[in-house]
Amino acid sequence: MSTSKASSAANAPENAHGRPFKASIGLKPRPAGGCHTRDAASPARAAHLCALPARARGRHALARPAAALALGLSLGLSLAGCGAPVPPPSESRVAPVRSSTGTGVGLAQVALASIDMADTVIGWAQSPAGRVLRTTDGTRTWTDVTPRAATAAAPSSVNGLAAFAGGSTAWYLDLTTYRVYGASDGGAAWAPLGAVQPRIPTDGGIVLDFADSRHGWIEVMSGVHHNRGEIFATSDDGRTWQAVYEGDVAGDLRFTDPDHGWLSTGAVLNRTEDGGRTWNPVALPGGAPSWVSLPTPFGTKLLLAAMREGAGGPRLLLFRSDRTGASWEEIFAQTVRETSTVALSVADERHAWVALADGSAGWRTEDGGSHWKRFSTPGTVAEMQGFQVVQLDFVSPDVGWMVAQERKSFAKALFFTDDGGASWMRVTPASRDSR
What we know:
There is one protein chain. By secondary structure, the chain is mainly beta. It has helices at residues 66-69, 148-151, and strands at residues 21-22, 38-39, 61-63, 97-98, 108-109, 114-117, 123-126, 132-135, 141-144, 160-165, 169-174, 179-183, 191-195, 205-210, 216-222, 228-234, 242-247, 252-255, 261-264, 269-272, 280-281, 291-292, 296-298, 301-308, 315-322, 329-335, 342-346, 352-356, 362-365, 373-374, 387-394, 400-406, 412-417, 424-427, 430-431. It has a single domain (21-281, 347-431), classed as Neuraminidase, CATH 2.120.10. It contains two helices and 35 strands. It starts with 20 loop residues before the first strand and ends with a strand. The model is unreliable at 2-20, 22-59 and 64-105 (pLDDT under 50).
């Protein structure tokens, strides 16, 4: 379910884009943003979450302190659109970056750290301060729907993570009490669910991830270098949680179904087949990478990105596997200027995008990964110079968003495309209210 937060077996329900539910936000404002990038299906929730319709979508959340996040950008994913109307451009396309959609009259601007669009008009976001936001007009305006119970003690201070599923369902983890809240009505009402009690320090970061409407995970990491990890799991929509793992394997986490999950320490990808109880490293063809992403559902396959050092310089590699992830095939290789993390997004079983986090280049496929071609990124568009790519979030072969970050100020910016990334329009998000 959540990524942005993805998790699921071949027949498990997933979000409209085929990924599990994952979204991400930091414990405090930080120089480099994180990104959800999981998608799985998630049902409506009243006092608890109900059964999820097949192909709902959601994300996972990752919180890290600034020192850890400065090492790399998290991935963001989004999948197929739902046929809602595309936000109209403010003018005809005459340049790779078009004029802004603008804000509502008299509305204050709002900063977005990550987004998770359910379709072309409805979606979620988290602010750099950790607030949960929701849009119903294609990212033009946003409503603060942060759980009031989690901010009652200090309304101006937020310390939490959210994971989203479709346009209505969300989970929120309060990082002060470690209690999970659930909503099935777009965040209008949140129900308190279960809580976890970490046994290790949480200074290395926290991940919230759901693979479907019932199965979710919370990972706690200690140490800036993720020296140790502790994983809790739920099989009843988040109402109760059980510790399933504590050990020296820790990093960004994503489940693709209730049994199969992935954990990236940066250079090593680990895999579980028993819901997170045991983990084993994954061997990729050609040798060990210097950096590897989490796998993303790609139709009936999985897709992941990696960087590997070579005699001719660093190379970006893309690999594809069936949903088990037992073996991988290399489907793309490209020498790049410097080692970089990447942003990856999948819209359906044929369309995917990958961009270097430094903004220097990006590629897209329209045939399930057999062929890749360039699309516009900050490094190839004069009007976007100075930005890094934090997240890509495509909901159809044409419609998507890019969360970017200014290199010097670390300020976030949101860009929109309706032509698959050939051109981009800067969006100025506005806040409809404030809690």
